[in-house]
Amino acid sequence: MIQREDQGKLLQRAEEFMQVFKKGADFTQELMRENEKLRYRLVQLEEQSRLASCAGQALREVEMLKARIVDLEREKNEILQRIKLVESENIDFANRYVEIEAENNSLARLYIATYQLHATLDFREVLKIISEIIINLIGGEEFAIFLLDENTGTLQAMAGEGVVVQDLPVFALGQGVPGMVAREGESFFSETLDGLEPEKPLACIPLKIKNRVIGVLAVYRLFIQKRRFAEIDHELFTLLAGHAATAIFASKLYCESERKLTTIQGFLDLLTK
Fold it and tell me: Ranges for the GAF domain (predicted)?
């Protein structure tokens, strides 16, 4: 009986040991499973950390690229502004070159015209050449040349184009724009280039020899439609007026001397007969 009891106890203990061993084995397996989960989770966390680090690096690179793009955009705008400035300067230079070419051509034509003007002493021919210069060089469509009669102190039209010279009024000194220009000796240029009356020409330039006014040049209409007179127009008018005054004065002196010479020669012929 005692042996049986001992055997029963041994079996019971063995069974309890097996249960404890089984529980230990189950616990070990559970620990292994938890350990595997933890290792997997650790790998996930490491991967997430690596990805987060890569993402942070990528974000930093993106920010750097954005800053670089902003710098490049600013540099591009600066370059475009410089290009526009250079293009504007090139256009200004080109326009100025064209203006200078036009001025040089006008001055060359004026030089040739004035050479022709001073090559004759015939009064009527001088007035004709002056009219041709105004037409071809300045583009005058309607104009008149007034000369001052020092005996009466009046301006009388002696030649013109596009106007009936005989119908133009006689201006006293100080009367109308021509009379004012003759009295003051200063050029007049209208602010508007519309057709005006004989008393109000577009431009009126005194014909002067030093400070002595011998007449005026009055322009009423131009062939070329302009909004205003350019600086070159003022210079051409001034140059033309100076040469015209000299040529007219010289031709008048020559005509008067010719008449006096003819009179003296006739008187001498009468004396010698």
Answer: 122-258
